[in-house]
Amino acid sequence: MTNDDGADALGLVTLAGVLGEVHEVFVVAPDREQSASGHAISVRRPISVEPDPEAGPSQHYRVGGTPADCVKLALERLLPGRPDLILSGINHGTNLGRDVFYSGTVSAAVEGVFQGVPAVALSSESTDPAVLRWIARFVCRWIEGPHLPPPPGVLYNVNFPAFNGRTGEPRQLAWVRLGRREYRNRFERRMGPDGRPAYWLLGQPWDRLGEVDTDVDALAQGFVTVTPIHTDITHYPVLAHKPERETIAGE
Ligand code: MN
Fold first, then answer.
1. What is the distance in A from the centroid of ligand 1 to the CA of 242?
2. Residue 61 and residue 70: Cα distance in Å, rounded?
3. Is the N-terminal amide bond of 51 cis, ω within 30° of 0?
4. What pLDDT sits at residue 205?
C-alpha cells in the first residue's frame, strides 16, 4: 500500500488496518503529504527511508519522496518479494476526470502497472472515519472478486461518494469512463513567507455534468465508480489516418 496524503493519513491507516486482518500488508508511503505531485520522481536528491531497511525487514516504511518513488523503492529494495497487488489510497478527496494527471494517488498505481504489478487507486469524497471504514471493508471483499487483477497495462481508478446515515451507503458500482472535471484556475497574489509577493493557486473543480457514462456523473449520483485506465495514452484514431513514414522536405 501507498498513498499521496502521507503515511499517517486516516484513509491509508484505516485500509491497512482492515486489510491487515486477512492479508499480509506492507505500507511504503511518503513521510509527508504529496497530493498533486503527479508522477514526479526524485532524481539528484537522496530519498530517506524509515525504518532503515538495512537494519532489518519492516512492514511499514516512511519514505522522504513522492508516491512514485515509494512504489519504485518498494519493488526494488524494500519488499521481500513481488506483491500480489498495489493499493494506493484511500485518498482524501476524489480523483475524477482530469485529476488523474495531477494525482499522486493515481500515479503510484500507474507506477505499479509500469513495473508489471496489478494496481488500484482508491479515492474518497468523504474523510469521515465511518465512511473510510466502510470503504476499507468493501475493498477487502472487492479485491477478491472476479474483476481483479486488471489486464496488463491497465489500472483501476476507484472513487467513493460521500454518504451518511441519512443518504445511506452506496448500493451500486458503475464502470465508467473519465468525465470532464476541469478546474477554474485562479491565482491570488499574496505576501509569501519570505516577505515578497507570490502567487497562490486557488483552483476550484468544475465538473461538467450531463453525460451518463462518466465518473464525474456517476459519483454525483451516488455510485462507487471504477474507471479502467490504460497507461498507453497514444491516440490511435489519429495515428490510423497518418502515414507511417513521411519525408521531411529540405529548405
Ligand atoms: Mn491526496
1. 39
2. 9
3. yes
4. 84
